[in-house]
Amino acid sequence: MTKPVRIRDIAEACGVSVGAVSRALKGQPGLREDTRLRIISVAQQQGYDFSRLRTDKIKRVLFLLHRQHNISRALPFYSQLLLGIDDACRDQGIALSFLSIGPGDAVSEQVMLHQPDALICAGFFEPELLGLLQQMKLPLVLVDLWAPGLPCVNPDNTQGGYLATKHLIEQGRSRIAFLASSLAHYSIRQREKGYRQALYEARLLMPPEYDAVAPPLLDTEQSLVEAVNELFRLPEPPDAIFAYNDAAAMVVQRVCAQQDIRIPEDLALVGFDDIDAAAWSHPPLTTIAVDKKQLGREALRLLLEEKLEENLLLPVQLVVRGSSGK
């Protein structure tokens, strides 16, 4: 029988104190980043059982959002998600804090300032950044994202994309474009998959230029404006757009207002997320409703129950308003 690796063994191999190893493995402050990573690397090489660190009850959770998100535009969605997590944390007596990070940050140091027992990551994170977070060996759950081997909770993005596109087809639209900021994000790719499924079932084939992916500019909103203008310059512009989220759909509304394109007469429009502003826009926006607070509550449940490799999908609902010509 293999003898379990002890903290003392790791300390001797690294030439540091037992206390330093304990702080590194528990993600506590007080160590240089290179020292922390070296200790964790040695622990992994020696086969240390990191699950032994998780016997304590989770008392502090850190909610992480990627700095790449335009925070002001992302908050209408993610603030509701955060409130759902906060509600669930209060019920469990857990303290919740927030941090936005990017790949250029000293990730471990920034995270450890909060001294969390567990992490919830929301929205897009590139694999390299997720890898850095996983190296910290803290329980981790993803929301609005998927990665192999990590527990996650998502709205049913594929079904949402399907419902949005099917609705536009039922309104008699035949030139339906899909507007995205990027196809790098799991959720957006899944929404496009649903869009394709609905077109396939209706035996509609869209030209490739109707896949309107915003050019990689620093300002996401300006890049979306460029993508929409490119659609409208086509010899046969679309008569409908399914936008990957409501914020992007509202960019379409502004461009249409500037160019005297009437919604829904000239262009039917559907968004995704059902943020509060969707109902106030002009005309009110047809969208796919996501229970954002429930996403947050389910994320905390997965964290506390230590569910592994589970992609929990929450149902979505089509909300029909004036922008699609109801």
TrEMBL record:
InterPro entries: HTH_LacI, LacI/GalR-like_sensor, Lambda_DNA-bd_dom_sf, Peripla_BP_I
Gene field: cytR_2
Protein name listed in UniProt: HTH-type transcriptional repressor CytR
Keyword DNA-binding set for record: yes
Keyword terms: DNA-binding, Transcription, Transcription regulation
Source organism, top-level taxon: Bacteria
PANTHER family reported in the protein's UniProt record: HTH-TYPE TRANSCRIPTIONAL REGULATOR GALS (PTHR30146:SF109), LACI-RELATED TRANSCRIPTIONAL REPRESSOR (PTHR30146)
Domain HTH lacI-type: residue ranges: 5-55
Source organism (scientific name): Citrobacter youngae
Keyword Transcription regulation recorded: yes
